[in-house]
Amino acid sequence: MSKLVENLRNIFKIEELRDRILFTIALLAVVRVGAHITLPGVDASLLAEVIRSQSQNSLFALYDLFAGGAFQNAAVFALGIMPYISAAIILQLLGAVVPYFRKLQQEGEEGRRKLEQYARQGTVLVAALQAWGVSIRLMNMTTPGGLPIVPEAVKGIGFIISTVFILTAGTIFIMWLGEQITERGIGNGISLIIFVGIIARFPNALLEEFQMIKTGSRSIIEELLIITGMVLVVALVILVTTGTRRIPVQYAKRVVGRRVYGGVTQYIPIRVNAAGVMPIIFAQSVMFLPSTIITFFPQSESLQEFAANFNYTSFWYSFIYALLVIFFTYLYTAIVFNPQDIADTMRKQGGFIPGIRPGKNTADFIDNILTKITLPGAIFLAVIAILPGFMIRLGVSPTMASFFGGTSLLIVVGVALDTLQQIETYLLMRHYDGFMKTGRIKSRVGY
């Protein structure tokens, strides 16, 4: 504990780092405030009543996860940063199939700037379309007693236009805040905005667990076992997230003038979980589609019966969900990691893998390792994805169970590690010990 306190003191001794952290906290506070300001024309009390009666097993719940609770509050930041993420993912996928975007991805800094500009423009379009859908949904929402959350006098084209304008402007403002955090703060701004939105749910999760102890439905020993299990799961996620397979690459010596280049051995780090959190997001989107569609047909008894039997705590839901996660892990890894490009780059730079011929043989060798190392990563992601549903069946509250795995845990761990690494870099640059004096965050410091 004394070491941690000393590191925290060291952080605030460095003026630049202190200013960056305080700037980041201030902007994240603005994001959280905007997540609780309800849109004009929406009755907040009736909206809360509707939220309590709705199922969390829908695409709206997944969207609300990234919006940090702003979506279910019908806040001015209801769309959160998701339109920007959607636009960025679309551009990334286009880079795999459209030569123009693929060329931009390979043009370095200039290509990155153009892609960022396209992402911003796409964000406006995606946000406007989603805001239009949100406005229609809000006008059609009623409480279990039949009261509309948007009064009849407010409904109409005026409400739609104002909602589209406010929500789109809110998304653009959040995108700008994220860019400011990245440039003038600490960590990746977009990721931190999502991170804070998820962490904001944790106090409510603890409160629900405390209420269960207070009412006698769970003992203190059982609660301690649950917390211990959560710590172990987080430790495993950190282990897999930072786990890599290093492929040695030898560079031949070259003499240019009086200088000698090359002649050293470097490594290509292939992550066990190269796809990150994206396979779970894609799989969740597919699995939530049926329940989302069913919410639009509340009068259909057969559909409601199907929804009751095919919920996220059932065996078949977990089985299909796990298979989808494994499938999307391989698919997304194949999109973001191209062994042929790596082999071509190595050959141009005079590098080679010892014992492997350059060119196609090198690409096949890397692809073989990638295929083998992706399998345990995919299985681990599948287990993490279905773990929250398993914990709910054991009696853990749904809010607390979400921190046992799934999208929430992977995002929290990934963002925390990246931010911690940036802070440690500042400390080491000023000759202070980092948070991990004897073992830094491997595979993130570099090789």
Which features would summarize this protein structure in a list?
Preprotein translocase SecY subunit; two-stranded antiparallel ribbon; globular; 18 helices; about 65% helix; mainly alpha; 3-stranded antiparallel β-sheet; about 450 residues
Structure report:
InterPro entries: SecY (IPR026593), SecY/SEC61-alpha (IPR002208), SecY_CS (IPR030659), SecY_dom_sf (IPR023201). Keywords: Cell membrane, Membrane, Protein transport, Translocation, Transmembrane, Transmembrane helix, Transport. The structure is a single chain. By secondary structure, the protein is mainly alpha-helical. The chain has 2 domains: 13-200, SecY subunit domain (Preprotein translocase SecY subunit, Orthogonal Bundle), CATH 1.10.3370; 217-447, Orthogonal Bundle (Preprotein translocase SecY subunit). Helices cover 67% and strands 5% of the residues. The chain contains 18 helices and 5 strands. The strands form 2 sheets. Strands 4-1-5 form a 3-stranded antiparallel beta sheet. A hairpin with a 2-residue loop joins β2 and β3 (259-261). It is globular. The two termini are 30 Å apart. 32% of the residues are buried.
